Structures are given as structure tokens and as C-alpha cells.
Amino acid sequence: MRESLELTEVPSLGSLYAKALAMQAKGLLPGSKPALLVLPPVEHRVAGLRVDRDHLVAYQRLMGDTVREELPSVFVHGLAFPVAMSVMVRGDFPLPLLGMVHLTNSVEHLRPVSPVAELSVLAYPTGLREHRAGTQLDLVAEVREGSELVWRGVSTYLARGVWLGPKPEGEHAPRDPFVPPMRTGSWVLPADTGRAYAAVMGDYNPIHLSAPTAKALGMKRAIAHGMYLAGRALAGAAPHGAGYSWTIEFSTPVFLPSTVDVAFGDEERTTMFSGWGARSGKPHFSGSVTRT
């Protein structure tokens, strides 16, 4: 049974990142004992959420999407993300937020959502489990219009080097080599891509903003937001005026500036997509969109 906490408003991502930084600076991070790695049985809720039209149009233009009277799925994710993140900066959340690796997203966009709809968001953590590099978990976010569920997303994250039990020994089985599919396009991502996305969606995670802020958190350069990449992919793959589901899996970060080669291909009701480094040939992401 989860305890429900009703938030008075959607928290700003800036304040949440500041809280996470302060906790890290004070050493308020999870202990190393497996018994301490327990997810809090809580859910955070926010009601009465309305869309800012200027932000919606700015998002659609940034992604190269059609400016239309319908909320793109990644934009809905952006509305729900601060509520989910507020769970991850609780004092009883057992994993460090900063440095956590975004692995996958799986989303059900159950029907078109109007920009004038009044929405509510519920978010909770679940699925704490082992990963070859540490511990992973799922953050679930549900968006409703009235009592109707219109969107549900599961974001999977990895805390590297944090173990549920003893650290596994031995080497992992090598992955199959990546063979790029036939390229259907390229995205040129300038150095300010992360700042442009943050200005629209409010996600000012330091690893996305500049080389100095990214280096402070252990990255060699700033990297593109995973949801920016997902939004670009869905702008070319998601249907209009219908429900759909989509997934994305992240392989290696996109360092900025960069050029990403992409491929889109249709299989019955599903569009498959993938992206990789134009120069390095390394896979960055892959996913699919299925029309319902």
C-alpha cells in the first residue's frame, strides 16, 4: 500500500536539482548496506495542471513537429517529470539522483490530449532490481483528465556502482557489435541543444547545459537530453489524432555538439527508429512507435 502525498503545485526542476546537489554536498546519500536499499512506498500527486500554450508551441518548433491542437507525448512526459523527480529527492529515497543513468522509456499515449485539458499527475517508484553495473528501478508517471487515464510512462534508471547485494564478480558477456541500418536522415545538434531544450521544458540538469557544468559531474562534455532525442524521433514517427505506444532505449550519450545519423522504417502498424554517431558509428538510441 502506497502513502499518497498531494503536492500543492508542480515543483520546479531547478529547485529539485538544487536540493539534490545540496544533499550530495552534505553527504546525504544512501548507505552501502543492502537493507537500506528499499524504495519508499509513496506516490506524489498534483491536480489542476494546465498547459502553457507558449511552451507548447516552442516545444513543437524545437522538435520540428507540427504546431497543432494536440499534446505531443514527450511534452506530456515533461509535464509529469517534475512530479516523478520529486520522489527521487526525498530523504528516504535510497539512490543518488545526480549521476543516475537514464536507460529506457516505455509509454502508453492512450488518446489525443487537448492543450486546454485540465490534467492531474501521479508518480511513484517501483521495481528495484539488479543490473550488471549497479541497481536499476522504474519511475512510473500517470496522467489523467478527470478520472480517465490518458497517458502512462515508465522511465527506467540505473545507479551505477550501487549494489543491492554483493558486487557481481566476473566479466559480462560481450554485446553483439552494432551494425548501423540504412540512414534515412541526420540531425545536426549544436552545443546549445541542451540549453534550448531546458529553456522550453525547464530541465536544467547540469550535465546537459555546458562543458564546465557537465565536467563537474564527471562527463567529458555536455550531453543531449534523452527526452530531446525521443521528442525528435516521435516528431517524425508518432501519429496525429490517435492513440499510440512507444519505447526508447538509450545506449551511449550524445555529446554536444554532434551529428546523429538516424533511420526510420515501417513494419505494419509500427515505426522503428534508431540513431548513432555520424563520425563514431556508436549506437545512441533505438525505439519504436506503434499505432493503436
UniProtKB/TrEMBL annotation:
InterPro entries: HotDog_dom_sf, MaoC-like_dom. Pfam families: MaoC_dehydratas. Residues 194-265 form the MaoC-like domain. PANTHER family: 3-HYDROXYACYL-THIOESTER DEHYDRATASE HTDX-RELATED, 3-HYDROXYACYL-THIOESTER DEHYDRATASE X. Belongs to the enoyl-CoA hydratase/isomerase family. This is Acyl dehydratase. The lineage of its organism: Bacteria, Bacillati, Actinomycetota, Actinomycetes, Micrococcales.
